[in-house]
Write the structure tokens for this entry.
Amino acid sequence: MAADINSLIDPLSAFRLDGRTVLITGASSGLGTRFARVAAAVGARVILVARRADRLAALSGEIPGSIALPCDVSSADQNRALIAAALERCGSVDVLVNNAGASEGGVKAEDLPLEDYHRIVAVNQTAAYHLSTLVAPAMMARRSGCIVNIASIHGLCAAAPNNQAAYVASKAALLGLTRELAVQWAPHGIRVNAIAPAYFESELTSDMFASERSLAWIQRNTPLRRPGRVDELDGAFLYLASEASSYVTGTTLVVDGGWTAR
């Protein structure tokens, strides 16, 4: 009898994304590319979004059924056109992954031009707000939707001595936005959560990974004594993007090797 009961239990099915459309910004490289491949591997139709059309086209050719929609998410007009095209092509956006990111690359706050500060905030936080509000009405209409914001441990703690005032401010704001939208939209069936990774190799961190001194600093400050591997975000991403987290909203899932526990 126990064997019969156990045969009915399929916990992994909750992590599937069959029949769902997942839109991922910043998909042309790094974590965004990985998220796209992972979503497709569990059955999702993936909409790939980034500025670099050539990279998107190449990636789309590797992911069957995916759609490449070039967009600069710091542009309000392009964001509106993006969501209109996504809804026209796919009928819905079931999961929005706000992954596009920018950083000032270690410039001290007193030396950072104000226009650069605004540019970084526009990509990291304002775009997430704008795209979320653009997909929300259709999600509200069907009382179902999921938004995953890719933040950073530096939304929770300072990046110094890396000198990233704009990056830190934008990621902290993104975590606040995650909580606020989650509570506002919970009655409409929309879940909003965030992932806060530590140091994973990407375009934003390429200089650090190329430097023995920087890698040593990461290892020294991480209790697990190493940076993360890109595949070590798969579980967190699938959990928050799928029905496996159907009773989770407004939370930040930290994936940092123990960095913020110090």
In short: The mean pLDDT is 94. Strands lie at 21-25, 45-49, 67-68, 95-98, 145-150, 190-197, 252-255. The radius of gyration is 18 Å.
